[in-house]
Fold:
Amino acid sequence: MSPLKIIRRDAETGPVLEVVGDLDFVHAPELREHISRLVVPPGRRLVLDLAGLEFCDSSGITALIAAHSHAQAARAEVVLVAVPANTRRILHMVGLDQIFTLHPDSDPATRS
Structure:
């Protein structure tokens, strides 16, 4: 089990969170808490960069859904970038690839 590391940076479109490690039952609450404290201005974008994600279980998927809800409540959007193939497959299987915007890398997601 890899510890979760969340690295925040700002882009012209809004906050970017790089999620590194395991997003599982043990670590997903940490991401949910981090996102709940995050201010995403209306019309802006929260980018979750998952390039460093090593594992994601149902708790991790729930944390991603919570990020989506948080952004919607702020009238903003969430974009997932560099989603690992196994996580992308899960998102597709449960239809969440229709809810989230997915990009192969952060460049297009962090530009206006």
